[in-house]
Amino acid sequence: MISSSFTAGGVGVGLRTHDSPPVTYIKPLLTPPILDHRCNNNKKSKFRSSTRRSVKAPQTQAFLLVPHPFSQSEHTAAASSSSVLGMTNCSLNTTTNHLRHVESMAVLPSGAGKIPRLNAVILGEALASEEDDLVFPSDDFARQALLPSAQKYLEMYKRSVEDPAGFWSDIASQFLWKSKWGDTVCSENFDIRNGNVYVQWFKGGITNICYNCLDRNVDSGNGDKIAFHWEGNERGFHDSLTYTQLLSQVCQVANYLRDIGVKKGDAVVIYLPMLMELPIAMLACARIGAVHSVVFAGFSADSLAQRIMDCKPKVVLTCNAVKRGSKVIHLKDIVDAALSESAKNGISVDACLTYENRSAMMRETTKWQDGRDIWWQDVVPTYSTICEVEWVDAEDPLFLLYTSGSTGKPKGVLHTTGGYMVYTATTFKYAFDYKPSDIYWCTADCGWITGHSYVTYGPLLNGATVVIYEGAPNYPDPGRCWDIVDKFKVTIFYTAPTLVRSLMRDGDAYVTRYSRKSLRVLGSVGEPINPSAWRWFFNVVGDSRCPISDTWWQTETGGFMIAPLPGAWPQKPGSATFPFFGVQPVIVDEKGVEIEGECSGYLCVKSSWPGTFRTLYGDHERYETTYFKPFPGYYFSGDGCSRDKDGYYWLTGRVDDVINVSGHRIGTAEVESALVSHPQCAEAAVVGVEHEVKGQGIYAFVTLVDGIPYSEELRRNLITTVRNQIGPFAAPDRIHWAPGLPKTRSGKIMRRILRKIASRQLDELGDTSTLADPGVVDQLIALADC
């Protein structure tokens, strides 16, 4: 087996605060930039402005940021008068592949696609319109940011890829380790041709992530700081826990688990809604070295049974019911059915700890199995609030998280402790420009990776105050999110593009009736955000003053991979921008050859990062085949990606969401973005269907803005919009009117169901139990021939 090893070394501290002149002006260089355009098959910019005028692209110049005592207005004027806006010439005279985007950042961005003029949008001073393709942070924001300039990012990024051992060791040293790792910080083999694929970070280091989340904060004097604000589904139901109180409750659950025989390495399945007891249970497992497997409390009994049979837990933690919106969901009934099914297949679970959620259902009406079922409130409070920590190796497993997929056995993604801890903490800190005074709210459920990394572990490792919301984001009306923002003075708001588009559809009035003045950073997660939704999120929700951290990452990566760092560089609406520290993204063609410059292809990553997953539970062969065999030597993300001439990365969706129309490979996200740019289109989802002439045709489900009637003229206008923005080859063959789209309760569109409806395979719709509104499927079927 061949592997590469990094040895600790190097100088400097990865999280060092850099001093820099606070104000810069932009000075033209004498020579134009030299950009690599070897890949010239992407003639049209996939994410250009939706303006339909034919214009000449602005001439590119190069600029260098130079310290100068300009005022903000002079800075803005200097920027706006140029056709390009600059970042830095960081004196990185390197041509190594992993620093390719660093070289591109030495040249000022020239904009995203053909636009009539290029304006600098300074946060808080101007709206982001269809013609404003670069959004800059204000000087005030940048001065106070953890990374106040592109130059500071470049310094840290360059070290993170040239000295990963030293870079990550310096950051890891800020956490509590019972004993440190050895000289070898990272050992890995990403090339399946050289033997088994494996990754190890901080091997031999002994730590505990629960201790670092809770005890470390209490010991540092933050015990009285609020850890969780909880908001119930119904207005008026709320609660809070300080770090000291949270630690006490975690210890009680941990002691209960130990008492019933759960030990280090044992699996615990958690099937809970967004109560504070969900992250409490996760932290309790981590405290005693147990491996938690959180299952989204929207999965069916069959899906839950599959996961139980795979990981064979000692205990299942659930609650009797939850009220989401106006609907009561009987979770305990689902667990009972799942445990019955798993028992038939030889996997019995002896204990089911059940939390009584009185706001949804009283215990008297809950079905019960004596000898197995235990009420949480009856036993957990009786245990001690002190629980000894189980110290674990950095490479010991922390959690399993199953990816559902549309067919086949779910994949149990396995994350380990040390590297995940260091990576989630660091990504949270920088991607959200986290400050100790921030109030942070991520709308994700802990049943998904976002809830693991950026509701629980990442924020608590930074000592943050986190808002947890039990209910639906549009209940009792579409203004609920902003009501919660104002109630808790939320400063960082992280959500999914699907929710953004849904709230767009409901109109601005539900947003503008609330203050939202506390907000300073917004975030997007889950799928590429189309530019029009980005602009609405920025202009309306953020009042044109909050940068948007549009993050690309996956369950498998553990944390952010490509994301804007607020304050560091200008954003382009819809672009994830540049890689995080230590991440080396590459775009390859079908043969696995890296493509330089402006291009489109398959997004891969070379070399490991601390947060990467280590295997698929019980199926390492599938792990290698799925992620490392398609392009040997790389981690294959499964996503398509474009890189523009400025080095910005644009995610185009899953490659299995690419439609091949008469030889043209068209990303569904690209067509969806074009459709949603139409002012009467609120949301769109595109799938491919068989076509007797073209091989595949484009089938678009379109949700209109409220009050807009269906019409053939509008159907033609939508098709024309796509033709104008992308090309005739991308015009949808069919527009299917959709009052709503089939989404999970977390907001994920179930494209599998859309494909079956589009191809009229109505007897193969499969499991729809996780949908927020199963009735939407019948509505779509009824409109199939309209």
Automatic annotation (TrEMBL):
Residue stretches making up the Acetyl-coenzyme A synthetase N-terminal domain: 153-213
AMP-dependent synthetase/ligase domain ranges (all copies): 221-608
Xref: Pfam families: ACAS_N, AMP-binding, AMP-binding_C
InterPro entries membership: Ac_CoA_lig, ACAS_N, AMP-bd_C, AMP-bd_C_sf, AMP-binding_CS, AMP-dep_synth/lig_dom, ANL_N_sf
Domain annotation AMP-binding enzyme C-terminal: ranges: 670-748
GO molecular function list: acetate-CoA ligase activity; AMP binding; ATP binding
Protein keywords: ATP-binding, Ligase, Nucleotide-binding
Enzyme Commission no: 6.2.1.1
Keyword Nucleotide-binding among UniProt keywords: yes
GO biological process terms, semicolon-separated: acetyl-CoA biosynthetic process from acetate
Family, similarity comment: Belongs to the ATP-dependent AMP-binding enzyme family.
PANTHER family, sorted: ACETYL-COENZYME A SYNTHETASE, ACETYL-COENZYME A SYNTHETASE 1
The protein's name in its UniProt record: acetate--CoA ligase
Species per Swiss-Prot/TrEMBL record: Linum tenue
